[in-house]
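ARCHIVE CARD
SHELF: 3
SLOT: left
DATA:
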Amino acid sequence: MPALTNIGCLATCAPGAGQADAGLIAQAALAWDDGRIVYAGPERQLPPRFRDDVRDAGARLVVPGLVDCHTHLAFGGWRAEEFEQRLLGRSYVEIAEAGGGIASTVRATRATGATELAARAARVLEGMLGLGVTTVECKSGYGLDREHEVRLLQVYASLARSSAQRLVPTLLAAHVVPPEFRDRRDAYVRVIIDEIIPAVAAEGLARCCDAFVEASAFSVQEARRILLAGRAAGLAPRLHADQLSASGGAELAAEVGALSADHLEYVTPTGMEALRRAAVVAVSLPIATLYLGQRPMPARALIEKGVAVAVATDFNPGSAPSWHLPLALTLACTLQRMTPAEALKGATLYAARALGLAAEVGSLEPGKAADFAMVDAADPREWLYHFRPNACVETVVGGATRWRAA
């Protein structure tokens, strides 16, 4: 059985004593067999049977494979012109009302072939792998009709068969109301419920069903209908909630038993309490906060309330055009006042919870997948404080090295 020794700091990210406890072990070792962890603890206690096939970690930091639990992975085109428009004072909503924003990416995505969409997404996944990301959630939401939503999810199914990472597909047909239904909102909600969800469920193309709850997207009432229909079809609910205004998204997430409520820049105290009571994971997306000039999610208040806070990139062509999850972790610290240990646990165990995968990935414990990253840093504090293009030196998925720095 292979083992990794001389680990300067092992972050197990086991459940432990809450968000601030990343399960740090100095002078540690890690052993695995058949793709599963069999030992994670002090090197001095490593059983002799694990010492036949030993590698040296060079006193580096070892963390669980990172989990990016919120991405819009496959899309056509980019939106650099909107970046400039926002710098000149136009708001996200103003750009969307003028035909830009999500609607512009829908047009570009519908016009892009499946082969090109898959090739673009594969390049992003390779970049993520080199950063230590071993599990990636990937949303549809740029098709907004049955044909193109199903096509995006089929692209993800194809990528899942060839990618080194674990992919978790999410149906986001309720991203915005497409232009052709602008004056027939309820008709589009019925298309989602009566056509898109059944088609996706019949092919087993998604694990979750998401909805964007906002004045410019879907109301609480519309999202409730969609999420409950998705849940009845076997798709776990998730929400884009309270991103641009206090829209009641957090409360709805608690009501429908969602795995997560994502964004939450404008979550209210009532919404925080609802998330706590329902054990809904709050997903922070600080790259989007940075690009949109939004006030940050109140992560400190959520953590103190007892809500688990995950951290993800929100990779998309408009509001978060970066798949750099370590950057998101540093921003979670600087913008949201999370500690490095809290941020790391947010991109590992709590991100896995947001996907319903905490029994499989997100921490280094016996029985879980042997997914981990070796980082050129002494500990999580040094890693996230000393930001550089990439501190990851090796990424292991299921016990096999899938990326190594040159």
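SLOT: right
DATA:
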Amino acid sequence: MNLVLANCNVVDVEQGRIQENRNLLIEGQFIKGVTGRQTRSEGRPVDLKGTYVLPGLSNMHNNLSMVFPFKNTNLTESPAITVLRCYRRAYDALMAGITTLRTVGEQNRVDLSLKKMINEGWVKGPRIFAGGKGLGAVGGHGSDFGQIETKGPEEFGKAARRELARGADHLKIFITGGIAKQEEDFEKPQMTKEEMVAVVSAARSRGTYVTAHAGSSLPIMRAVEAGVKCFEHGYVLSREAAQAIKNSNGCLVPTLSVTRSGDWMRKNGFEEWTIEKALSAGKTHVDSTKTAIRAGVRILNGTDLPPGDSNDGVNATVREIEFLTEAGLSPLEALRAATTYPSALCGVSKKLGSVKEGYLADLVAVPDSPLSDIRALEKIGFVMKDGEIFRNEL
């Protein structure tokens, strides 16, 4: 049955304006039309009561299988346990209005299985762009989290091709250390340029891209030269590194939540040294994000926290969007970071990320315009994915 989402205002994230007093005709999975309220449309009416409709939100940095605190990770656990943990987190995200997730390294490759189950209709969940297992150096950043450890360009290339053959939509590499391990820092590289080139070559052969866990500037600049498209975290980012990303038409997923979520970390049992290490990087992290914004780097929304969790009393994905505005993005650019820009990186900008005729009906509604105040996203009361209503609390 067709639906008519009546009496709403459409947030046009492409043009940065509000289309007032609209009806949306939903036919199957798609938006069939965006019309004036006086236009008669066939379908069951759903009164949105004057709310503001925008595309469902995207979270571009997810490790759904991660165990907290990290020390409790069991690399031999049954894939059945892993997938159930991932499914719960994915479903919680969908119910919060995050209709698209990108995964960047999952234990037992459960994101590939979960994506298949959702796409085939066995379970309900968000749209998933899956990365399979991340690729890193032996004993490197991903080694304690069930990711692939290898060495040398040839072996990295083989590992990359295997992940793509298993169904990965993109590839994730670890090029520096991070916060999760006491002995690591952001500066020391964990992959050679030749190893990165091998992974990029494999990705390009399948029409996709590589994203990199990256803490600091020199490894990032080397990765740009190797053809890496997207960077995660960027804790220490110089003007030169930011400009290099910009010049390559690359993008950054800052994950500001990682270094400013002490209460969430304590609630989830993190050791105090981990919390202190994370929070101590906070100022440099946000300064680096500001540097990227000033350079014109395309910023994407991603949390590195479970996307449906609460952080400071706000959904973690929404809180990350607020962190991005605090770092200097306008409300419009912050919305694009969670809608149009993710769809472009994932190669689906012609059917996802906007409220337009012919696009997938992944939608949320809020009582006020997020273009005026991004905190309107804290009050998502309506969630639709693929034309199916999952929440309607308007």
